[in-house]
Amino acid sequence: MAKKQPIITLLTDFGLQDHFVGTMKGVIASINPEALVIDITHDVVPHDIFQAAFLIKSTYQYFPPSTIHVVVVDPGVGTNRRALIVSSERGYFIAPDNGVLSYIYADEGIGEVREITADHYFLKPRTGTFDGRDVFGPVAAWMSKGVGLSSLGEPIEDYKKYDLPKPEPVGQGAMRCKILYIDRFGNLVSNLTQAHFEELLDASEKRRFAFQVGEHTIGKISSSYTEGNDNEIIAIFGSTGFLEFSANKGNAFKLTGIGAGKDFFVKVA
Amino acid sequence: MAKKQPIITLLTDFGLQDHFVGTMKGVIASINPEALVIDITHDVVPHDIFQAAFLIKSTYQYFPPSTIHVVVVDPGVGTNRRALIVSSERGYFIAPDNGVLSYIYADEGIGEVREITADHYFLKPRTGTFDGRDVFGPVAAWMSKGVGLSSLGEPIEDYKKYDLPKPEPVGQGAMRCKILYIDRFGNLVSNLTQAHFEELLDASEKRRFAFQVGEHTIGKISSSYTEGNDNEIIAIFGSTGFLEFSANKGNAFKLTGIGAGKDFFVKVA
Amino acid sequence: MAKKQPIITLLTDFGLQDHFVGTMKGVIASINPEALVIDITHDVVPHDIFQAAFLIKSTYQYFPPSTIHVVVVDPGVGTNRRALIVSSERGYFIAPDNGVLSYIYADEGIGEVREITADHYFLKPRTGTFDGRDVFGPVAAWMSKGVGLSSLGEPIEDYKKYDLPKPEPVGQGAMRCKILYIDRFGNLVSNLTQAHFEELLDASEKRRFAFQVGEHTIGKISSSYTEGNDNEIIAIFGSTGFLEFSANKGNAFKLTGIGAGKDFFVKVA
Q1: I want to staple C162 with a disulfide (CB 3.0 to 4.6 A). Which of B223, B228, C19, C102 is the partner?
Q2: What confidence tens digit (pLDDT) does each residue in C88-109 have?
Q3: Which residues of B touch A63 (CB under 8 A)?
Q4: Burial class of residue B250 (count of CB atoms within 10 Å of its CB; 0-12, 13-18, 19+)
Q5: A226 burial type by CB count under 10 A (0-12 exposed, 13-18 middle, 19+ buried)
Q6: pTM exceeds cut of 0.90
Q7: pLDDT tens across the length of chain C (269 residues)
Q8: What is the three-class DSSP state of A213?
Q9: How far is the C-alpha of B21 from the C-alpha of B14, rounded, in Å?
Q10: How many CB pairs lie under 8 A apart between chains B and C?
Q11: Three-state SS letters, B3-65
C-alpha cells in the first residue's frame, strides 16, 4: 500500500516579513522533505493566544485526520512552560501549554495530551528564543516520519485550559453573547451557534428575536452577505457555524467599532 | 508514462490573516494530496473583481497548460450567481460568474465555459458564505484527480464579461489610455501594449511622442527602472507587455497620485 | 537510490500583493514540478539589499546543503549588473551581483562564484524588468533538474561584496556595535555575537558590563523574552547567535526608536 503523504500545518504569530517561517520549513524539510507543509496563517496578533485558539478550531476539521497541526503562539518561550502533543480523532496538535488548544480540548474526544520531553528530537543548540525552529518544527517533522506519541513524552492531565466564553442568560429570554473574532472583511464572528439559537427560538412562543450590537438592532437572519442596504449591519450564520455580524459592501467592524471580546445581546420574545 | 503532477493555483481576496486560505488547502489536500497548490496572491482588495482579472491575466501563461487556476473574488457569494469552469488552450479556470475572467475570454481561444452544477463534488453543508472552501476548492481538487469537464455541468454562452478598457483615439494623433493596476513598487501599469504603441509610431511621420500623466510629460521610452533622475517619472514597457510609469528610487503612484482606473494621454507627432 | 527531492527557496522584495511570486513559481513548476519551493520571505523593504543579506544569512544553514537559495532584491534589474551562482558547503545561491550575498561570502568556505551567462536557460523574451521570472527562477529550476554549475557560466573573482559592520573598539573596554535588523516583534538584532561578547568579558577583571542603547542602560543578559518588567528593555542572545534588545510584552523598536543601522555601545569594567 502506498504510504499517504504526511501533512503538517503551521499556525503562528511569526509574521511573514522575517525568516522565521522559512527557517521552520527548512528544519522540517531537512528531517522529512516528503511532508506537505500548509500554512494556516502567520499573522496572528503577536502573543494573542485566544485568536490563535479560535483559528485552529476553525480549520483543523477540514484536514485529513492524520494531519499534524503545529500552533506556535508562545509568549512563554524560554521559560519552563511545557511543550505538548495532543492526539484526537480529527488530528494531532503540537503547541506550547498555554491554553492555545482550549477549543480542541472542548471539541473533540481527546485521545491523550502528552508533555514533549524527548529532547533528542530537538534542534541543538536550543536557543530558548525560537522553539518553532528548535522544538515544535522538528518534533512535527519526526512525527510525520512515523515517530510515535509514546516516544515523545508521558501523558499529563494538568494542561492549561481556558474557560471558553459561552452565551449566558441575563433575565428572561435574553442572552449575553460575545464577539470572538474579527476577520479581514470586518465580519464580527460571535460565540452563538446556530444550534443554540434554534433552541432559544424553540423555547419562545412568538419566535421573534432581536440582536443588540452596540447601537444596532437586527431582527432577522440573512442568508447572504449581499443582503441589507449599503452599510446596514446584518446577522448571518457564517462558515464556522457561528453567528456573524456583517455589512453589505461595508466593514461591520469599522461601522460598529465593536471588537473581539466585546459583548452583544440577543432577546427572544 | 508517469502521470504529471497536477497544479492548482489560488488567487483570492481572502487575505492571509484568517484561516480561509489554509482551510481551502485542507479541503484540497483531503481530496487530492498529490496536487501542487501555488498561491498567486490572496491580497486582492476585497471584492475588487477588476484587480483580480488583471492579476490572473498576468500570470496564467507562465504555468503549464494543464494547470487549474482558481480565482475567488466573489462579492456575490450566497446569491444565485453561477460558478464556472472555463477551458482554454493555456489552462483551466474556476471562478464565480462575475466577470473576473474577462481577460481570459479575450486572450485565449476559449474551449468551453460551463456552469458548475454537479453539487455532489461540493462540500456539505455548503454554508453560502465560503464557496472557496465549499465549492471552488473541492471542484479544483476533483478535477486535479481526473474528473472531466462534462461531469461538472453544461456549457453556457451568457457568462458575464466586462468591456475591457482599450486606448481610444481623441483627436488627431492622440489616444486616451488607462492605468489598469498599481503594483507594490508603485509602478503604474497601463493598457497600452508595445504592439499598439509601435503601430501609432509607424503611422506618424516624425515618430515623436509624449505621454501626459497628470502633471508629468514623458518623451522617451526607458529600458530599465534605474533610468531617470531620482523621483523622475519614466515610461517603460514592463514584464506584462504593457507600458508602465515608474520612478527611479521612488514610487510613481505616490509621486503622481494617479491610481488604477485613471486616464493618461499619448500624443504622436 | 531514490533521488532526493530538490529544494528551492525564494527570498525577494516582491511582496505578496501582486502576481510576481506566483508567476516565478509557475515558471519553476513548468521546468521542474518536482522541486519543493519554500518561501523565506517576500516582504524585504523594496531594494533593501542589506536587509535581504541579513535574512538569507539567518536561514540558509537550516536547509539541506543541496538547497538552491534564490535571492532577488535587485534594484539594478535591466542594467548590465551580473547574475551570479554561488556554491558553498552549505548550499547554492542565485542572486544579482549587488552585495546581497556578502554574509554568505563571509560565512562559508565558498566553492565558486560564477557569472550566469547561459541565456538559453532564460525565459524568452527577457523583458529587463522582471529577472526573477526571466532569469533567476528558470536557472534555479534547471539546476534543480541537474544542470551543473559549469554549464551556467565562468567563475569570477570581482563580485561585489559589502564590508560587514563589525563591533569596533572605542577607548578602553568599550565597543561600538550596530543594530542590523528589526524583527516583527520589534526586537533589535545586533552585530555582537555571543562568542565575541564572552571574549570581551574574559579580558576584563571584574566581568561587569553595560549596554548603552539610546537612553537605556542594560547590565545583564536575560535568558527569556519574558524577563524584565513591562516595557523594560532587556538584552538576550537570540536565535541567530547575536545579541538582541527586547521588551517584555512590548516592542523594543517602538520603545527605543532605534532602527537598523544605528549604533549602540558596550562597556566592560
Answers
A1: C102
A2: 999 999 999 999 999 999 987 7
A3: 26, 29-30
A4: middle
A5: middle
A6: yes
A7: 345 789 999 999 999 999 999 999 999 999 999 999 999 999 999 999 999 999 999 999 999 999 999 999 999 998 999 999 999 999 999 999 999 999 999 987 788 999 999 999 999 999 889 999 999 999 999 999 999 999 999 999 999 999 999 999 998 889 999 999 999 999 999 999 999 999 888 888 888 999 999 999 999 999 898 898 888 999 999 999 999 999 988 899 999 999 999 999 999 88
A8: strand
A9: 7
A10: 91
A11: CCCCEEEEEECCCCCCCHHHHHHHHHHHHCCCCEEEEEECCCCCCCHHHHHHHHHHHHHHCCC
C-beta of residue A110 within 8 angstroms of C-beta of residue A87 = yes
- From C21, which residue of chain B is nearest by alpha-carbon distance? B40
Give mean pLDDT, residues A53-59.
Answer: 97
Is a pLDDT exceeding 90 seen at residue A266?
yes
Asked whether the beta carbons of residue A236 and residue B76 sit closer than 8 angstroms, the reply is no
Burial bucket for residue C119 (CB in 10 Å: 0-12, 13-18, 19+): middle
Cα A209 off chain centre by: 29
- Select from A38, A64, A185 the Cβ nearest to the Cβ of B22: A38
H or E element: which one contains A195?
helix A194-202
Calculate how close chain C gets to B137, using CA atoms only, in Å: 18
- Residues of chain C found within 8 Å of residue A79, distances taken between Cβ atoms: 224, 226
Which grid coordinates belong to C147? 544542470
- Compute φ and ψ for A16, nearest 5 degrees: -115, 0
| ipTM of the complex as predicted | 0.95
Task: For residue A140, give the H/E element and its range.
Answer: helix A137-144
Residue B24 has pLDDT above 80, yes or no: yes
A28 to chain C nearest CA, in Å? 9
Q: How many angstroms separate the CA atoms of A236 and A222, rounded? A: 5
Residue in chain B nearest C46 by alpha carbon: B185
**Bond into C65 cis (ω within 30):** no
Among chain B, residues having any CB pair with chain A shorter than 8 Å are 14-23, 25-27, 29-30, 33-34, 46-47, 75-79, 127-130, 133-134
- Nearest C-alpha in C relative to B242: C127
Return the closest-CA partner of residue A60 out of A11, A14, A117. Answer: A11
- For residue A149, is pLDDT > 90? yes
Residue C158 DSSP code: -
Q: Are the Cβ atoms of A183 and B18 closer than 8 angstroms?
A: yes
- Torsion sign (Cα): A106, A107, A109, A112: negative
From B32, which residue of chain A is nearest by alpha-carbon distance?
Answer: A5
